[in-house]
Amino acid sequence: KLNHLNAYYLSHDVKSESVFIILHGTRGHKNLQLISMLRESLHDNGFDSISINLSYGIKNREDDFLPCDIDHRHLVSDSLDEIKGWYDHSKKLGYKKIHLIGHSRGGLDIINFYEQLNKSDKAIIDLIFLLAPSSDNHQDHVKTYMEEYQIDIKNIKDNDIIRINFLGCENAKVHGNSFKSYYHNLDTISTIDALKIIRANTHVITASDDNIVPLTHEKVERSSNMNENVKLYSIDGADHFFRDLYFDDLLEIILDKLD
Hints:
Blueprint: E1 6-10, E2 18-23, H1 33-44, E3 48-53, E4 71-72, H2 76-92, E5 97-103, H3 105-115, H4 119-124, E6 125-131, H5 138-149, E7 161-166, E8 169-175, H6 176-183, H7 191-197, E9 201-207, H8 216-224, E10 230-235, H9 246-258
Helix pairs in contact: 2-3, 7-8
């Protein structure tokens, strides 16, 4: 199942009891600065990790941003299946507990993966960290495309091939079912709706100077009041990627929950 996928497994001579599965954001990869710093810092503090590359339908996809100028056929459901593959692999490696970290759209993927697990698989997941997660829902996407591009995305058919702004790519060539899986997918749950019901200990860490998902903190604040399993933090001065010294603040929050 994992033959065409790749990940970076960083472990100690004596494996830690728990392992982190770390997931990048939109069109990203496992060697982005934030992801590599997370795994190295966790390793320095005694924790093993698997940082994964979503394939987006590309065999053994390289550590580079997914190009915009491809034929986009990839589906969110495939990404969730891949996360499950790495989760099953982690269990086979003998870890007793699995922690999840997702950045940006990776946070949305992680929380959807978790919500689709059965009860016994959920029980192994101890902690979830969502770093500046995407927070728009289906209605937000419909509204944005109507206002900015005068396109009613509800009318897009699965077998359409369209030119449209997609995952940060301008005028990308996208198959209708691929577009809908990201922007109008009734089988997935929005981050905000998931946080209302999630049973795992979930820590949402946002950045005050985030210009990619600037509304996430405010939206989570409203929803997390309903769920004692969700804790919300904001790192003052940080951007969407928690660059520079703000990474230390991010790491401190994560390590604090592991004590």
